[in-house]
Amino acid sequence: MLTLHLYQDSIAVYYKGRRIPTVALYTTPTLHYIQHIALYVAKRLTELGISAFRHPDAHAARVIEIACGGACRWSQDGEEIESLLEEAYYNHLADRVIAFTTTADSLIIPCIDRPLAKALVKRAREYAPDLTLIASEYGGDCAKADYVHKPQPLEVSIPLGPASRAVLHTAIWAIDEGIAEAPVAPLLDARCNI
Q1: Model-level pTM?
Q2: Structure confidence by residue, pLDDT tens digits, 34-76
């Protein structure tokens, strides 16, 4: 009943002939996450009036400086921006997932990752208010979902981690219950056997 297809940069999942759109988030490498969020971080630094910030990675700090266009500089005595970077990172991931919802009727919220779950709910309510939100409560609770499911990680033929397999179980449950036709399922983890 569950069919999986591995491609070079994605995973396609089908259940009872229906495609479950998946977004592999933490399972694929990123050159440097700062490159994706630097403009947002620069904008927020400017809005907050922060002209000097600190970051442990000099290369990442330089990317943010360039995005600031001279309005902010890296300094050892600058403001700590870790919470701003975390907010920007999770909003970026949520935006990637929401981009996949154009042909979907619902979104699985992986509750195990609370910051991501919060960003997904916020972005979905802002940009896709008609989307049905389904909480996959494996490893945690989610607030503000339309439906709640307590999954068990599925056994699948590809090396997905338990959080991803739980999200897939919730997607299958939603289809079986008639709640969703094509739920978007963010995949968070993979198993590596070396």
Answers
A1: 0.81
A2: 888 888 999 999 999 999 999 888 888 888 999 999 899 999 9
H or E element: which one contains 167? helix 162-176
C-alpha span between 153 and 174 (Å, rounded): 15
The side-by-side arrangement of strands in the sheet containing 183-187 is 22-24, 183-187, 106-110, 132-136, 147-149
Token output for 123? 């972005």
- CA 49 to CA 44: how far, in whole Å? 8
Contact residues for 28 (Cβ-Cβ < 8 A; gap 6+): 9
How many angstroms from the chain centroid is the CA of residue 54? 26
Secondary structure of residue 16 in the 3-state scheme: coil
Q: How far apart are CA 17 and CA 107, in angstroms?
A: 19
Alpha helices in 7-139 (DSSP H): 34-48, 58-68, 82-99, 114-127
Cβ atoms of 145 and 122 within 8 Å: the answer is no
